[in-house]
Amino acid sequence: MAMEFRRSSRRISESSGSAIALILLLFIHGANSFYLPGVAPQDFEKGDELKVKVNKLTSIKTQLPYSYYSLPFCRPSKIVDSTENLGEVLRGDRIENAPYSFKMREAQMCNILCRVTLDAKTAKAFKEKIDDEYRVNMILDNLPLVVPIERVDQGSPSVVYQLGYHVGLKGQYEGSKEQKFFMHNHLAFTVRYHRDTQTDAARIVGFEVKPYSVKHEYEGEWSEKTRLTTCDPHTKRLVVSSATPQEVEQKKEIIFTYDVDFQESEVKWASRWDTYLLMSDNQIHWFSIVNSLMIVLFLSGMVAMIMLRTLYRDISRYNELETQEEAQEETGWKLVHGDVFRLPTNSDLLCVYVGTGVQCLGMVFVTMIFAMLGFLSPSNRGGLMTAMLLLWVFMGLFAGYASSRLYKMFKGTEWKRIAFRTAFLFPAVVSAIFFVLNALIWGQKSSGAVPFGTMFALIFLWFGISVPLVFVGGYIGFKKPAVDDPVKTNKIPRQIPEQAWYMNPVFSILIGGILPFGAVFIELFFILTSIWLNQFYYIFGFLFLVFVILIVTCAEITVVLCYFQLCSEDYLWWWRSYLTSGSSALYLFLYATFYFFTKLQITKLVSAMLYFGYMLIASYAFFVLTGTIGFYACLWFTRLIYSSVKID
């Protein structure tokens, strides 16, 4: 599969006709279309030099990016690396100068780039990349190169765009069944520009290419002034098809050529990214929102019933008990009031995971706010990943605060130990997996391998900034006066009665994780597609709504199951509240496994290990995020109900 973008206008689902849906639609449209381009516009006069840059080679079959010059393409006299931000390096971007020479608004035809004679090694390298369907990515004025493809959709013609062009293709000669490899050695570039009628300066608004495979021919001996017979503007012989393709074989001669055409466009510079960002599947996203809202409404109804009817009746009845005999006959959640705030097993570990969850929650929330405001648009390559890393580091302050506050509520005294564990547990697990995956990428000689300099920068962010901030937050949280529990804890633990099968801890935890996952799984499909199929994801308005729904769903399902648990006289709610909503991470990983076998074309073992390694990290982060939401919801709920009854 290749990334596709439609030029045709978006159509909004006619089913969302209510006023609320209309307001949401306007909100989504605004968040979807408004973005900050990330770079200042640049004006070009006629004849100005345009700098074309090459980026990594990518393949959805291997998920291993490679540097453009890892293949024996034509090279400039000196290769110059562009400065990349942290996110670009982690994504495997390697931006370098290209040998192409463009002059603004000056068309060029049949420019000869270079001539290459393949040996056994280079022919094998090209064949491997063609077989793995690698695509060449280029950049002009911060715009990525796209291949336009016309097709008929619902009776009307439209244009879809694919990021980058294939290195080559596989096929057979007519009358032969032997598989051959062919090189795309002629590129017909189209640069679209918007011209200012007053100054005559122009701004680039589009960068397209049509690749061809052509076996070039020429007369006489090869020299710098050689004119091709297969592509010659003087004889008006241009390349318009791949009728005589260039085969990739040892000792074959390949001549690389290109055309450049300039076309004026009505698209303004501020809207030039709309072609890349316009989505054609709004109906599916609206279905995702409606599906999630149905889950929230169902859970909200249950919570309302519990809070307004059942709890109100229980509290009234408990407060009206007058005699000792009546108090001894009480049943339900009040019966465990002396044990409900008992110190849980492995309370230190719970504090660490709650603090880590607060760190994840803060990072995701702030990232989405910036993304909706347009600061993390795709035009700012690597901006999203860089922002998430930096926010994670600085959110260590809140992680230390949350973990130490909970630790102090548990009557702990060694806050430094909790801060240390908070600073190292989650990052250490993620780093261990990341280092193993990075070693695998190094073994494949891929540009996706993180260089030692970047690795040092990541370690510095962790030890130099995140760890100290966790300790600062831990100190602040521990020194703040603790909040007393609403009821006192008995010295002797109460024996928990035998539970019904549906209140079994494992069963209730697994059931609780289904609904939060169900609220996000449709949007999860688009996120996985953007990551693993090399597509842009820029519908942060939809994503923010789904994120809010996820928070509400996690809180409500945990509160409902916590109430049922307390009513069955089981007071061990601390860890179960965390695991109930956190178990949605298990379903996320299972869905990622399903997605791998049904949507991806990965066949190599290393690529599969990369996929499941990264999805394991994502699932782990989702676990601490959703688990923390459920825990705080349950903590608020239990403190609320037990502070509302009279306890003798």
From TrEMBL:
Its main location: membrane. The chain crosses the membrane at residues 286-308, 350-376, 382-402, 423-443, 455-478, 499-532, 538-566, 578-597, 609-637. Belongs to the nonaspanin (TM9SF) (TC 9.A.2) family. It comes from the Eukaryota. This is Transmembrane 9 superfamily member. The lineage of its organism: Eukaryota, Viridiplantae, Streptophyta, Embryophyta, Tracheophyta. It holds the Pfam family EMP70. GO terms for cellular component: endosome membrane; Golgi membrane. Keywords: Endosome, Golgi apparatus, Membrane, Signal, Transmembrane, Transmembrane helix. It is a multi-pass membrane protein. GO terms for biological process: protein localization to membrane. InterPro entries: EMP70, MFS_trans_sf. The C-terminal KXD/E motif functions as a Golgi retention signal, certainly through the binding to the COP1 coatomer. Coiled coil: none annotated. It is found in: Endosome membrane; Golgi apparatus membrane.
